[in-house]
């Protein structure tokens, strides 16, 4: 089951126990660029997941005892091979998920390699100094927990997948990865890369398929010891219920409805250009500040400048570097985004820009859309659309800005634009979010703690926080007496 995608050969079978394994059923990966099938992919279920988990469980007995230095060497080799294949990975993922090729080339795929390098290096410096308790030496160690099940979304599948896969492998866990059915192809290429790097059979496994089949089987498997999921709140609830009987620790990165707060004393041009950036990846970014809150005194000026700048957004085939945003990922998702917009218009809201499909392009291309001043309880203001749809509101003062920012069940991120450093610190303290950017957006480092509050998730990842999750942290106490000479 091999397909040629943008000149790159893809093996559509699963990767289980160091070998390619097919299934009785398959599905086609459909490119959002033109809604054409581009590859045949094996569709796994209970049997394939069970085989992969058992292979991972068997490999874990050896992998857990592999020294940190050896594990780190494997991860660096994988990073080397990713860097050698950046162009292949970039063109395949662009064709598969419709994100910009220029972004994949310059940022996303280099970040994939960085994921492996960072956690390889962090593993070698991971340490907790011994401490004394009444003459007894206490020693903290990070013991790998077992088989990790990892499920990630389609908006940046390889980068978001390896953000979890790399620390799990570094920690000494083995992995069963269920890539997104709407963009599964680079996961197959990653399997090839791990094989070329010499990673022992069973340490890394890929089972493709639908969430209701492969995903469900993975989340309830009794040998899974960690589950990491990035996606929607409803799916997270289902996963939590499936994992509960086995008491499996969970890491969830879920939705967002983040505030983008603009104070009158901010750098105006920077605020406008950063706000336009919230349309990145056709709005399919969980961190996007989709609720733009602007101080009343500059509201009219900001709105005019935003609309003028939005006219210059170029939408089209993401393989062409002249374009700024591409299509929505799939027909069902396109209809979901359109449904939000149509219901908002039916309620009386009139879009200031956009408000529907890009009829010049057809297909899955939805125009960047902005609504102004929706009602407090409006669906378009309260629910994550995950498309190029923003809402603009105004506030009178700092207290109201904070209250409006926190008027959501989500708590993933926030952006604060202000020229007053003390105000930035005050607002940052008060805003309910796992991550707050001040006068910037998307500045990220793997040392940072990342995760959301409320419906935006459970747990934190990055740096030592990732090892805290994928390991069982052990404390050993050594008495000063009783040792035989």
Automatic annotation (TrEMBL):
Q: Which residues form the Aldehyde dehydrogenase domain?
A: 24-475
Q: Which CDD domains match?
A: ALDH_F8_HMSADH
Q: State the Pfam families in the record.
A: Aldedh
List, alphabetically, the PROSITE patterns matched.
ALDEHYDE_DEHYDR_CYS, ALDEHYDE_DEHYDR_GLU
- InterPro entries hit by this protein: Ald_DH/histidinol_DH, Ald_DH_C, Ald_DH_CS_CYS, Ald_DH_CS_GLU, Ald_DH_N, Aldehyde_DH_dom
Say which domain of life the source belongs to: Bacteria
Q: Which UniProt keywords apply?
A: Oxidoreductase
Q: Where is the signal peptide?
A: none
Record bears the keyword Oxidoreductase: yes
Where do the catalytic residues lie? 253
Membership in a protein family: Belongs to the aldehyde dehydrogenase family.
Q: Which PANTHER family match?
A: ALDEHYDE DEHYDROGENASE-RELATED (PTHR11699)
Question: What is the protein named?
Answer: Aldehyde dehydrogenase
Q: Which organism is it from?
A: Dongia rigui
């Amino acid at each position: 089951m091999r397909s040629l995608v943008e000149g790159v050969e893809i093996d559509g079978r699963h990767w289980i126990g160091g070998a390619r394994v097919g299934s009785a059923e398959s599905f086609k990966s459909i490119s959002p660029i033109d809604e054409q099938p581009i590859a045949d992919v094996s569709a796994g279920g209970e049997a394939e997941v069970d085989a992969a988990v058992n292979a991972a469980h068997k490999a874990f007995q050896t992998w857990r005892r592999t020294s940190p230095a050896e594990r780190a060497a494997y991860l660096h080799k994988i990073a080397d091979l990713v860097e050698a294949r950046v162009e292949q990975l970039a063109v395949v993922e662009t064709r598969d998920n419709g994100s910009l090729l220029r972004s994949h080339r310059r940022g996303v795929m280099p970040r994939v390699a960085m994921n492996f390098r960072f956690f390889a290096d962090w593993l070698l410096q991971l340490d907790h100094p011994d401490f004394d308790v009444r003459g007894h030496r206490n020693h903290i160690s990070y013991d790998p927990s077992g088989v990790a099940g990892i499920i990630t979304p389609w908006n940046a599948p390889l980068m978001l997948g390896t953000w979890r896969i790399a620390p799990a492998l570094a920690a000494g866990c083995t992995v069963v990865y269920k890539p997104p059915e709407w963009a599964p192809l680079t996961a197959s290429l990653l399997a090839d890369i791990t094989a070329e790097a010499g990673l022992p059979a069973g340490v890394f496994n890929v089972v493709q398929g639908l969430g209701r089949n492969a995903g469900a089987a993975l989340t309830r498997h009794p040998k899974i010891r960690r589950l990491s999921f990035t996606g929607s709140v409803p799916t997270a609830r289902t996963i939590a219920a499936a994992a509960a009987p086995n008491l499996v620790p969970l890491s969830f990165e879920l939705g967002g409805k983040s505030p983008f707060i603009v104070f009158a004393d901010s750098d105006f041009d920077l605020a406008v250009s950063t706000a336009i950036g919230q349309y990145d990846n056709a709005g399919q970014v969980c961190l996007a500040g989709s609720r733009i809150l602007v101080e009343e005194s500059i509201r009219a000026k900001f709105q005019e400048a935003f609309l003028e700048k939005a006219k210059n957004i170029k939408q089209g085939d993401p393989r062409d570097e002249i374009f700024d945003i591409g299509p929505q990922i799939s027909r069902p998702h396109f209809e979901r985004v359109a449904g939000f917009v149509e219901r908002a218009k039916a309620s009386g809201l009139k879009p200031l820009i956009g408000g529907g499909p890009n009829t010049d392009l057809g297909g899955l291309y939805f125009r960047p859309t902005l609504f102004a001043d929706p009602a407090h309880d409006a669906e378009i203001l309260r629910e994550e659309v995950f498309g190029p749809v923003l809402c603009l509101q105004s506030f009178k003062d700092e207290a109201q800005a904070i209250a409006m920012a926190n008027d959501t069940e989500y708590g993933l991120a926030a952006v604060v634009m202000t020229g007053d450093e003390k105000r930035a610190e005050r607002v940052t303290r008060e805003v309910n979010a796992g991550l707050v950017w001040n006068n910037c957006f998307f500045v990220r480092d793997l040392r940072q703690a990342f995760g959301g509050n409320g419906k935006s998730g459970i747990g934190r990842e990055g740096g030592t926080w990732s090892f805290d999750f994928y390991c069982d942290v052990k404390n050993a106490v050594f008495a000063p007496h009783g040792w035989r000479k």
